[in-house]
């Protein structure tokens, strides 16, 4: 009968997972905002305003980066870039910590 040894996870590995999770959460918020805009959600709704109030600061410098006349397309491009940015940056930071 074999015995299993459970090794504790390293602190660095745990920190890397937390950072990756935070980046994924930020990207999900951006994606939810994009979906709300694309699907034409009611902007007077409290949930839509809540997501917008979180997504806008997380988008950093990306809104307005590419001036596109169509508002929906501009949101998709600019906030989509912000989502990719969070995934890439937090992925790189997590890789450095491992």
Description:
With 98 residues, the protein is mainly alpha-helical. The protein is 69% helix and 0% strand. The protein has helices at residues 11-38, 46-58, 71-97. α1 (11-38) crosses α2 (46-58) and α1 packs antiparallel against α3 (71-97). It starts with 10 loop residues before the first helix and ends with a helix.
Summarize the model shown.
This protein is an all-alpha fold and 98 residues long. It is built from 3 helices and no strands.
Order of helices and strands: HHH
Structural class: mainly alpha
Instruction: Round the Cα radius of gyration to an integer and report it.
Output: 18 Å
> Shape from CA axes?
elongated
Estimate percent helicity: 55-70%
**Beta-strand content estimate:** under 5%
- Report the average pLDDT across residues: 90
Cα-to-Cα separation, first versus last residue: 33 Å
**Major beta sheet summary:** none
Tally of contiguous helical segments: 3
Keywords:
98 residues; 69% helix
Give the helix/strand layout:
Layout: H1 11-38, H2 46-58, H3 71-97
Helix pairs in contact: 1-2, 1-3
């Amino acid at each position: 009968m074999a015995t299993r040894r459970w090794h504790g996870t390293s602190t660095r590995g745990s920190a890397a997972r937390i950072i990756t999770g935070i980046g994924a959460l930020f990207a999900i918020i951006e994606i939810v905002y994009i979906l709300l805009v694309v699907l034409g959600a009611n902007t007077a709704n409290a949930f839509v305003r809540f997501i917008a109030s979180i997504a806008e600061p997380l988008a950093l410098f990306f809104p307005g980066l590419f001036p596109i006349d169509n508002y929906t397309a501009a949101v998709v491009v600019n906030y989509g870039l912000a989502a990719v940015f969070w995934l890439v940056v937090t992925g790189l930071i997590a890789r450095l910590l491992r």
